[in-house]
Amino acid sequence: MLPMNVKVVATNRKARFEFFLLEHYEAGISLFGSEIKSVRAGQISLAEAFVQTDGTDAWLMNAHIAPYEQANRFNHDPKRPRRLLLHKREIREMWDAVRQKGMTIVPVQVYLKEGRAKVEISLAKGKKLYDKRQDIARRDQARELEREQKERS
């Protein structure tokens, strides 16, 4: 989990539903000035985002950071690829894992830590339809148990 001095800006809620999250990494994001201002304002979406790596660099693709209103002509492209700042060893580990069938790297959440934008990324394996159904059934059972306990007290 994250320490207390961290402000979560965006989460990818579908990531836990669509994938089994195996290993987690914290990466810095290389941003322009207008982008970090938009991130601090919470204007970021990870809904369609993914991480792409070639063994030497890692890139955050399709993350939408809304244009900053006061930046006018110095604004940025909202969906441009953004470089992730990771150690070479971590990039190599992810690259080796992604070459296996069914493995991918997904961004889980973006947060501000000590004034810097960080992204939590995970090595993930795609879930099958029956896995998703099991998750839904477990969630429904937990909801029913809570309801019954609430009625008893």
Structure described in brief:
With 153 residues, the protein is of the alpha+beta class.
Outline the structure in words.
This protein is of the alpha+beta class and 153 residues long. The chain has 4 helices and 9 strands. The protein has a 7-stranded antiparallel β-sheet. A two-stranded antiparallel sheet has the order 3-6.
Show the helix and strand layout.
Layout: E1 6-11, H1 13-18, E2 19-29, H2 33-40, E3 44-45, E4 50-53, E5 58-61, E6 64-65, E7 82-85, H3 88-98, E8 103-113, E9 116-126, H4 129-152
Antiparallel strand pairs: 1-8, 2-7, 2-9, 3-6, 4-5, 5-7, 8-9
Instruction: Tell me how many strands there are.
Output: 9
How many domains is the backbone divided into? 1
Reported CATH architecture: Beta Barrel
- So what's the overall shape? globular
Counted by DSSP, the helix tally is: 4
Residues in β-strands, percent: 35-45%
Spatial separation of the terminal alpha carbons: 32 Å
Structural class: alpha+beta
Mean pLDDT: 88
The CATH topology turns out to be: Small Protein B, Chain: A
Gyration radius over CA: 18 Å
The CATH class designation is: Mainly Beta
